[in-house]
Fold each of these.
Amino acid sequence: MTSLPPQPLSPLDGRYRTAVTELGEHLSEAGLNRARVHVEVEWLIYLTSHEMFGASPLTDAETAALRELASGFGQPEIDRLATLEATTRHDVKAVEYLVREKLAKLGLDRIAELTHFACTSEDINNLSYALTVSDAVRNVWLPKYRSVIGALRSLADEYADASMLSHTHGQPATPSTMGREIAVTVYRLERILRHVEGSEYLGKFSGATGNFAAHTVAAPDADWLRISREFVESLGLTWNPLTTQIESHDWQAELYGRIAHANRVLHNLATDMWTYISMGYFRQIPQAGATGSSTMPHKVNPIRFENAEANLEISSALLDSLAATLVTSRMQRDLTDSTTQRNIGVAFGHSLLALDNIERGLREVDLDRSALLADLDANWEVLGEAIQTVIRAEVTAGRSQISDPYAMLKELTRGKRIGHADLTAFVDGLDIGDAAKQRLLQLTPDRYVGLSMQQVALLAD
C-alpha cells in the first residue's frame, strides 16, 4: 500500500480548518511560543527600565526592536525554535535561547544575562497561557458566541407572536410562542455571557517554588512582591500572590466550566431545533448544490444542528477534563498540566465549530406558521388547564358550586382528543359566571399563550 503524504490527524486541522483558523493565532504551539517571547521580552524591558542590577534603560528604538521580536514572530522563528528544542528537549529553554540570539543580532548582548532572569519555566508558561487564552476568548470565541445570541434574539423578536403547541414529557401542553421559547435560550446564554466576560486571567511570577527565594538572594533589598505584581498587571493579567511553582489554574477551571455550561445550553438548543425541524415546525431552506442523502433525493438533513450537537459534546468533555485535571498538582509541581494545556485549543476549537454551525443552521430554516397552527387546532384538549383554573376561581368567588373542577376536566380530556365543538358544548353547560364563560368560549389554543409576547420583550430590558 502506498503511504499517504503527511495528513492532519484532527479534523479541526483538516476538514474544519477554515471555521477555526482564528483560534490558531492564539491557541496553537506557535501562538504559545509567540506569547512566551512576548513575556521574556517584556521582562527584559521591565528590568532595564527599572535599572535593576545596574542595567541602563533601553532607548525607544531598542525597546521597539525588542517588542518586534514578538509582534513579528513568524515562520523563521517557528523553524528556529524547532531546531533549538531538538537539542534542548525543553520548549521554554529553546525560547530563551532564541531571545538571546535575537539580542546578539540587535547588539544588546549587555542585557543577555537578564534574559529569563530568576524565572522558572512556569513563570513564562503561566503568563503565556493566560495571555493566549484571554486573547482567544475575547477576540475569537466571544464574538462568535455573541453573534449566535444576536441571531437568536432576532428570531425571538420575529417569532414572538408565533403561537405553538408546547410539549412537556413529549406530550401536548400549554401553548407558547416560538419567539418566547427562543427567548428562554437567549436569556440563559446571555447570563453565561456575563460570567465569561467577567472572567479573571491570573498570573504568577515568583520563581521555582513560588516564594522568590533566588530573587531575594540576588537582590535582598528589592521589593519583589511589588515587582511581581507590577509586571503581571502590566501584561493585563490579575496577579496571583500565593502559588507553588505553577499558577494554580483555578481561573482556568472556572472559565472552562463556564464555556462547558454554554456548550450544554447550546446543545439543548441544537436538539430542540432538530426536533422542531422533524415535526415540521421549521422548514429547511435548500442550499444550492447540496445533497441530503446519497439515495433519497428529497431529503434536506438538519446537519448544521447535528454537527453542532456532536462538537459541543466533544468540547464539553475536553473542558471538563481540563477543569478537573488542572486544579491538581502533586506537591509543588508535576508535569501533567503541560500536556493537558496543549489541548485547550482543541476544546475551544470544537466549541467554535459548533457555534459556526448553529449560526449557519439558524440562517437556513424558516418557521412554518401554518404547521404550528394546524398542530394547535388538533389539540384543543390543552385548554383543559385554563377551564379548570377558571372554574376554581369562580368557586372561590362564590359564582359556582362545582366540586373538584380538576377531576371534571381530567375526565373530559385525559388521553382523549376533543375538538372545538366538544369544548364549546362543555363550557356552555358550566355553572360559572357569564363573564368567565364568555372568556372561555372565546379562547382558542393559538390564543392561549399567556404573557409569551411580553416575556420576549423582557430581553430588551
Amino acid sequence: MRTGRASTDTVIGARVVTTANTLAHQPLSPLDGRYRGAVADLSAYLSEAGLNRARVEVEVEWIITLTDRGLFGSTALTADQKDALRELYRAFGAAEIEWLASTESVTRHDVKAVEYLVRDRLQTLGLDAVAELTHFACTSEDINSASYALTVKRAVENVWLPKLRAVIDALAALSHEHRDAAMLSRTHGQPATPSTMGKELAVFAWRLERVAAQIAGGEYLAKFSGATGTWSAHLAAAPDVDWPELSRAFIEGLGIDFNVLTTQIESHDWQVELYDRVRHAGGILHNLATDIWTYIAMGFFAQIPVAGATGSSTMPHKINPIRFENAEANFEISGGLFTTLASTLVTSRMQRDLTDSTTQRNIGVAFGHSLLALDNLQRGLTEISLSRDVLLADLDANWEVLAEAIQTVVRAEIVAGRSQITDPYALLKELTRGRRVGGPELAEFVRTLDIGDAAKERLLALTPAGYTGLADELVDRV
C-alpha cells in the first residue's frame, strides 16, 4: 500500500515539474502577456532590443563622424559604404539580437558586446581599416546616454504623446458635445453651484494640454566626453581637435541635446523632469478616471453595452466600468515607477555608480503601464453616453443651490441702496443649510425679499439648470 502511494506521489510530482517547466516560458509581466497588444509599439524603442539597436546606431554614426573629418589619417567613407554601415541598425533584427545575447554571455558587458558586433560587421563589409574607430575614446555611458535619449525621445514622440493627445482630443470632443448639459456640481461631495458636463470635461483637457506642451518641449540630453567627462583620452590621441565642439555636433546631429558638463554619466536631470511630468499627467488622468467612474455610479453617464461582453459572472444586468478602473490602477503603477525612476536617477555616488543602469531598464515598464492606462481611457470615453434626464432630475431636486445667487444679488442690491437687509448670507443660511428647498418655496421666499423689482424678476426666472454662468462659453477655451 505504501508502495502505491509513493508511486502516485512520484507521478503527481513529475506532472508538477512538467507543468512548471511549461509555465516558466510564459510572460511574467502582463505587459508582455495579457496587455501586449496595447503596448507593443513601445517595444521598438524601450525594449532591450530597442536599446541595443540604438547603441549600434550611435557606434556606427560615431565612426562615420570621425572618418568624415579624416581623423588619424582615415578616409571618408563613400555613400555606398555609409549606407551599408547604417544598415547595421536600420535592419537590426533577430540575428543581431541572438548574436549580442551570445556574446554578452561571455563578455558580461552589454555595451562591449555591441562594440564587438559592430567590429564583426565592419570586417564582413570589408571596412577593417576603420575598425579601431569603433567605440573610439568612449566610455559605455557615452553610448548609453545617447541611446537612452534617442529611444525615450522616439517612444514619447511616436507612441506615448500621440496617445495622450488622442485622449485630450476625445475629452475636447465630449466637452463640446456636452457644453450645454447642465449638471449639479458637488464640492466636498455636497450639492453645489451647477456647472455643465462639457465644462467639467474641458477642465481636464485644459490641464492635460498644458502638461503635454511641457513634455513636448522637454530636452533629451546625452554626454559624449569620455571616462569622467573630461575628454582626456581624446586629447591624448589628438590634442589639436576641438573635441567638445565635435561631440556637440555629433550628438545634436542625432537629433538630441548635448550636455557638456558631466561626470562619467550624463546626470539624468532631463529624465527626472520628463518622468515627473509624465507622472503629473498620469495623476490628472487618474483624477479623470475616478470622476468618470463616479459619474457612472451616479447615473450621469450610461455605459454603452459591448456585444458579447460580460459585466459580472453572476449578475447579468451589470456593465462594469472596467476601462476606467483599469486606467486608474495602471496610472497608479506607472506613477509609482516614474517616482522611483526620478528619485533614483537624480543622484549618483561621486563620478558614478551603477544604480542608474538597472533602474533605467524599467523605463519601458513605466511607460507601458501609462500607455495601457491611456488606451483604456481612450476606449472608455467612447463607451459612455450622457444621461441628460438624470442630470436634470438631480438639479431639480436641489433648488437650494440657488441660495448663492440670491444672497449675492441681495448684497449687490444693498450696495446699490435698494435693500435694507443687514446680513443676506445669514438669511439664506437659515433658509437652506442642511435641508432641501423646493422651487415653489424658494420663489415664495424671493417674493418677500426687500430688493428691487428687476433683481427680483431675475431671481424668480432662475432655475438650477439655468444657473451655470459662463460654463458653456468656457468650453471654447479648449
Amino acid sequence: MNIKNLIKAAVFMLLMVASGTSFGQGQQGVSLDKIIARVDNHFILKSELEDMYAQYKAEGRSAPEKCQLLESLIINKMLLAKAEIDSVIVEDKEVDGELDAKMGYMIQRFGSEKNIVEAYGKSIDNLKSELRQQVKEQKIVEKMQRTISGNVKITPNEVRKFFNSIPKDSLPYIPSEVEIGHIVKLGTVTREQKQKLRDQLLELKQRAEKGEDFATLAQIYSEDLGSAKNGGDLNFAKRGAMVPEFEGAALSLKPGEMSDVIESQFGFHLIKLVETRGAEYRARHILLRPDYNKGTDMGEAVRSLDSLRALIQVDSLKFAKAALNNSDDKETAESGGLIMDRSTGVARLTLDASMDPALYFAIDTMKVGDLSKPVAYRTEDGRSAMRILWYKSKSQPHTANLRDDYEKLATIVLNNKRNHALEEWFKKAQGDVYISIEPEYKNCKVLGLATGDDS
C-alpha cells in the first residue's frame, strides 16, 4: 500500500477504533506486554496490535491485515512524537469532557458500572485511567492533524474538475438522506427517589458525627468515582469553579463542619469543608446520583413537549428556536435541533441500516413535514427522556450530480487535499523521529522501512 493510501486508512482506523472502547485483555488474564515497535519515546505493545485486531472481530467487521494495523499504530505514535516536539497539547477539560461522554456511553451499553467491572475484570478507576490515556492521545492526534492540514482550502473550480474527472459510468449512487430534528426533555426524578437519596446521606452524616471517618465513608459510598478514591477530596478550588449550590453550601461552613444535604445538577451532596486559603477552599463530599432508569417521572417532560408541539404546529413558534431555547440536548439545540451524522458533521442522515434503529422506525411512520408526538428517548449518557421529532426533508436516491451533491463532492476533494498535506508531512517527519520495529514483523513494510531498521 502506498503512503497516500496508508495515511487515509490509518487515520480512519485510528479514529474509528479510538471512538470505541478497548481496555486490553484483562478479563481473560492474557499478558502480551511485549514491545514490538518504538517511535521516539512512544512504545507499541503486542497487546495493542492484538486488541485492535480483536476489536474488529468482536464487532463483526472485516479486520485489515495486522501489518496494516501496525502501520496505523506507528503513524499514530509519529503524530504523538511530533506533537511533543512541536509542543502541541490538549487541555485537561477537553479530555475530561470526552472521557465522561465515553463512560456514559459504556454505562448505557452495559446497564451499570457493576456490569462493566464484571465484563472487563478491572475496577472503574483502572478502566477510566486506561481510557483517559486513550482519549488524550486521540485528542492530540486530532489536533496534530488539524495543525498539519487545517489551513487547506478548496475552490468550486477544484470540485468541478474532480467531478468531471469521474467517468460517467462510475458515478456513485446516492441513497436517500433525511434531515431530522428533535427537542429533548429529560425526565424528572421522583420525590420518592429524591427523598431516598436524602435519607441515605443523612444517615451517613449521622455516622460521621458519631465518629466514623468521612473519607472512608466517601470511599465506600460516593458515586463521584474520581474523588471517592481520595476520600471524597476535591482539592483546592477557586471561587466560581464549582456549581453555585455546592459552593454556597461549602463556603457557609467552618473547617471540619458538614453541610445539610445539597442538591445540584450532578445529584445530591454531603459536604465537609477541610480548609480555606485566601480565595480558595478545599472540601470533601459524598455524592449520590439518581437512578435515571428507575423512579423517573416523564409527566412534566411530556406536558412541556406537547405545549411546544402545539405552538410549532400553528406556526407561532419555529422549531429551531424552540429547540435552541428548550431542548435538554444542548449539542443539537445549537443547530436548531437537527441531528448530525457524526462521521460527516453534516445534518443529513443516510436512510439505511446504519441509522439508529429507534430513529429509523420512528420516521418510518411519518411524512416529510410531520412533527411527532412525544416519544421515549434514552440519552447517550443513559438518562431517560422524551422527545418530539421533526421530519424536515428527504432526498430521493439518485446518481451523484454536481448540483445536488456539491457538498459531498467538496468534502471528498477537501479530504484528498488534506491527505496530500499529511503525505508530505509524513515524508518530512520520518527524518525527525526514531523508529524501530522488531524483526518478527519482517514481512511488514512499515512506511517503506525495512524491518528492524532505524530512521
Amino acid sequence: MSQHKSLTPLKTFLFAFFATNTIILSYIPIYLQEDLGLSGTEIGWVLAIGPLAALISEPFWGYMSDKFKTVKRILIILLTALLLFSVVFFNVYSLGLILTFAFFMYFFSAPVGAFGDSLAQRRADELSISFGTIRTWGSIGFAVSSLVVGQYLTWTGIENIIWPYLLFGSLALLVAFRLTDAEPSKESVSLKSVKLLFQNKRLMFFLLFIMFITISHRTSDSFIGIYIVELGGTESLVGVSWFVGVISEAAIFATAAFWFKKYHTLMFIIVAGVLYTIRWFLFGVIHDPWVVIGLQFLHGLTFAVLYLAAFDYITRLIPKVVQGTGHLMFHTVFFGISGIIGSLMGGPIIDHYSANALYTVLGFFALVGTILIIIYHVILNVRRA
C-alpha cells in the first residue's frame, strides 16, 4: 500500500471531523443567543460545560486508548455516542437541559480532535513525513465548513444548524472504520507511568505558562462570532472570518516541513505569543467587522505556529508509552482548562462592558503568557550552559 493511499482515510477523517467542529465553535454561540435567547453569561456557562466535560473525558479516553492500544476503536465509540447526544442537544430549549446534553455531547466530542492529531503525529513519525502535511486537512475541513455552513445558515436560519452538523459527523464516523491504527508501544501503560507525567516539572511549568496564551485563544474562539455580530456582521460574515483564519492556518500546517525545524521550538511559541498580543489589542479598538476579517490571516501565524510548536515540544518531553495520555493532557490544558476560564470570563465582560473590552483583556493575558515562556526559555538555556 502506498503512503498516499494509506493516509487518505486519516486525511478524510480529519477533514470531516474538523468540519463538524466548526459548527460547534463558530455557530453554537450565535444559535444560543439568537434562536434560544440566552444572555452572554448563560452562553458562557454552556460553552464552559464543553471544556469541563473535556477535563474528565480526555484523560479517561486517553488512558483507555493507551491501555487497550487502539485509537481507531475508541474513535468509533466516541463518534457514535456524539451523534446520538447531539440530536437531543439540538432539540431541547430549557437552560437545564441545554447544559445537561451539552455536557454529554462535549464528553464524546472533546477527545476526537486530540486522538486525530495523536494518530496523525504517530503516522507521520512512522512514515518520516511532516505532521503538518497530514494535520492541514483538518484545517481545510474547518475552512470549507465555515464558509459553506455560514452561507447556508444566512439563507435558511440559524435554527437549521443540526443538518450540516449531522452530515459532517456521519461522514467522520464512516471514515473512522477505515483508519489505520498506529503501531502500539511494546511497553504496557499503567497508572504509575501516567503519574510520571505529573511529576515532570518541565512539562507542568510549560503547560502552566502556555495556558495564559491559550486562554486568550479559546476565549476568542467562543466569542468571535458574537463580536462580529455585535459589530454589525451576519452569520455569513462569521463564516468568512473563520474561512480566512483557517486557510492561513492550513497554509502554515502544509508548509511546516520547510520552516519548522529551522529554530528552537520555544522560539516559535514566543513569536506566536507576541503576534497574539498584537492581534488581541488591535481587536480591542476595531469597530468594523471587515477589518476583523482582514486581520484574521494572523490566525495562522498565531494558532497554527503555537499549536504545532507546542505539540512537538510536548511529544519530545513525554515517553512513548504514555504518548496518547500526554497528548490528551496537552489538549486538556489547551482546549479544556483554558476554555472553561475563557468562557466563564468572556460572557460577563461582554454583558457588562463590550466585546472590544474583552479583547483588550485577552491582549494582557497573551502578553503575560509570552513573558513567562521567555523566562522559561532563558532558565532552560542557563541550566544547559
